[in-house]
Fold:
Amino acid sequence: MPTFISLVSLTEQGVKDAKKIPARIAATEKLFAQAGAKLKDVYLVMGEYDYVAIAEAPDAATAAKAVLSLASKGNVRTVTFPAFTRKEIAAIVKGLR
Structure:
């Protein structure tokens, strides 16, 4: 299944109840599953973004649905893009001339 990476920033609303973040991540797993995607992992990071989330979805439309559902809650903003595995990279570059 295709992989999607999201760079996630907490909104002002999202940072107010930081203690609830573990519960929000659990709720996000359920939200993604309802949209047809799977939240594989979430990393707390330091710098411009607060989290990096890795998800799988059958296609970009499903990934977009999951991320929009999450963002609509008002706690985070996301930047999401497709990611390619080593095997997929090898197949992509094999066709280069």
Q: What stands out?
A: The first strand starts at residue 3 and ends at 10.
